[in-house]
Structures are given as C-alpha cells and as structure tokens.
Design brief:
Elements: H1 34-43, H2 57-64, H3 72-80, H4 85-97, H5 103-116, H6 120-132, H7 138-146, H8 154-163, H9 172-185
Length: 186
C-alpha cells in the first residue's frame, strides 16, 4: 500500500478554485414535452427533438417546415402485410374511424378489408365503422354495394345495407325485402 501525504505547503502554488460558470448559465433550456415527442414520432425521422437553443440554424429551419402529408394508402398497404389478422383488423378499424380520409383512400380501405381480412365478422366490423364515420364517401358506399356479395350471410348483408346512409330511413320490412331481392339477383 502506498500512502501519499499532501501538506498545505505543497499546494501553495496550485490554484484551487471552482470551475468557471457556463456562458449561458442563466438561460433555461427547455426539454421537449411528451406531446412534442409523440408528434415527432408520428411525423417521421426528420424532426429534431433538440431544444431550440441547441439547434443549428439549418436544424431550426428544417424543424419549422410542416411535416410531409401522411399517406393513408401507404398505411393500408403496410397493414395488409402484417402477419396477424387481428393486427390488420385493428389498423383497418383505426383508419376507418379517422376523419378527413379522402375518397380514394376509403375505397382502398374497403378493398383491403374485404381482401385481406379472413373472418366475415372482422370485415363487417371495419365496414360498419367506416359507414358510421361522418366523412363516409358515396364512392366507398357504391364500392361496398358492388362487393356485398363477398358476404355469405344474408343477415350480415342486411346489417351493412341498414348502416348505409342511403338506406338509413327505410323501414325494417322494406330492408328485409331489399336483402331478399339482393340475394335473388346475384
């Protein structure tokens, strides 16, 4: 064991002082909030989560630009490649409930749900969520009418017909007759 003895006399030439304060010690550095972090995850990898005081001018300019427009069709395509039917169902339901989805994306969602979901229950559920959306497209409604033959159960077809905006005011007996005619004409 080695012992080092230091005396006050041996330290007389050394300057023992506290470190100099940071130049910007009085400035507060704001860390990103959870809302900012969630928004950055949704908008993609281009968003920087550095506090504004630590960003370079180029990074600040890039952070002030609006995020790129989200592609609903790309999300539907991504969901169709999911391995689990339950996961596809959940993503399709979430997209069906979203407001502001354009006509082409709604039609793509209808086709994807009918083509990539296995159970008729899951298909019906996604279509019913889409039809209860206030922004439900008449073009998507026409597509659902055209593809109504994908359902083997007459009860499911009648429930889907009853949920369509154009048939909401029709009496139940008239809707049953419409379902019966639909079954005979296909």
């Amino acid at each position: 064991m080695i012992a080092i003895a230091v005396s006050a006399a041996s330290l007389t030439g050394c300057a023992l002082s506290s470190p100099q304060p940071w130049p910007a010690q009085d400035e507060r550095i704001e860390l990103p909030s959870l809302r900012d972090i969630a928004a950055a995850r949704r908008s993609g990898p281009h968003t920087l989560l550095l506090p504004p005081a630590l960003r370079t001018p180029e990074q600040q300019a890039a952070a002030t630009q609006p995020p790129p427009k989200r592609s609903v069709i790309a999300e539907i395509e991504g969901a169709s490649r999911l391995a689990s039917a339950w996961d596809r169902r959940q993503v399709y339901r979430q997209l069906a409930a979203e407001r502001g989805v354009d006509d082409a994306s709604q039609c793509h969602l209808v086709n994807a749900a009918l083509d990539h979901l296995i159970s008729e229950t899951a298909k019906e559920e996604v279509l019913l969520v889409l039809m209860t959306n206030p922004d439900f497209s008449p073009v998507a409604e026409e597509l659902i009418l055209q593809r109504l033959t994908n359902f083997t159960s007459p009860a499911r077809r009648q429930r889907l017909l009853a949920a369509m905006p154009r048939f909401r005011g029709i009496d139940r007996s008239e809707l049953d007759l419409l379902g019966w005619l639909w079954d005979r004409l296909r």
